[in-house]
TrEMBL record:
Keyword Nucleus: no
Keywords for the protein's UniProt record, in alphabetical order: Methyltransferase, Transferase
Species, as recorded: Streptomyces cinerochromogenes
GO biological process, any: methylation
Protein name per Swiss-Prot or TrEMBL: SAM-dependent methyltransferase
Keyword Disulfide bond recorded: no
Amino acid sequence: MTDPATTPEPAAHQKIDTSVPHSARIWNYWLGGKDNYPVDEQAGDAYTAVFPGIVTIARSSRAFLRRTITYLVDEAGIRQFLDVGTGLPTAENTHEVAQRLAPEARIVYVDNDPMVLAHARALLYSSAEGATAYVDADVTDPDHILAVAAETLDLSRPTALILSNILGHVAGHDQARSIVTRLMAALPSGSHLVVNDGSLGVDPVFEQAQAAYNDSGAVPYNLRTVEEITAFFDGLELIEPGVVPVTRWRPDPGSPAPETVAEHGGLARKP
């Protein structure tokens, strides 16, 4: 364990509510993790009863993250990562992928969920050469995120900003774009942005299941059109193949032909 995490009082003392399903715990359940409660399993099973493909989306999203990080380390030479909305630790977390390829990589995870905070120690095991830290902050407060991340990262050097399945929790598209713009504005030329989120206009059954989930009492997650997801990259240089279903973003050589899923993502460089 290297650099200490930041664990502010408010989140550290928040009670974990096990009576209401929570998106991070449901996602963990779909990924095969154990950090969830019966209420999350019930909500997850209700969702998959309507749309079994959500498990494929969850796992394809994780595979997309692994491939984009591999590109960032091996081809773009990135050694710093700011992962906002990291969720619960599962397999192939950002620091695991990055430090396997470049042990000196430095990673800051950002979340504001008390259960994630309770598991932060699992995220903090870094290579001896690098660093991994946790920031308790909300995605809607980019200035705080940047201020605390700067304690671990040198934000004058190229940094990869990762926003994986988090912008859907920001209700307004304009607000979500403003958050991305503010975060990227603080990063230098040569920095990169990774975004992936559930997409509208691809699978009506998925949209039906998501609408039911949003009505369940859990924190809503807003699907967006491919055009809206693409707009997060305005002013940046998209890396081929652009914004595509996550299964189709540079699939591993020799892998089966990728199916189209209602989860789009992309990677772009700041000029």
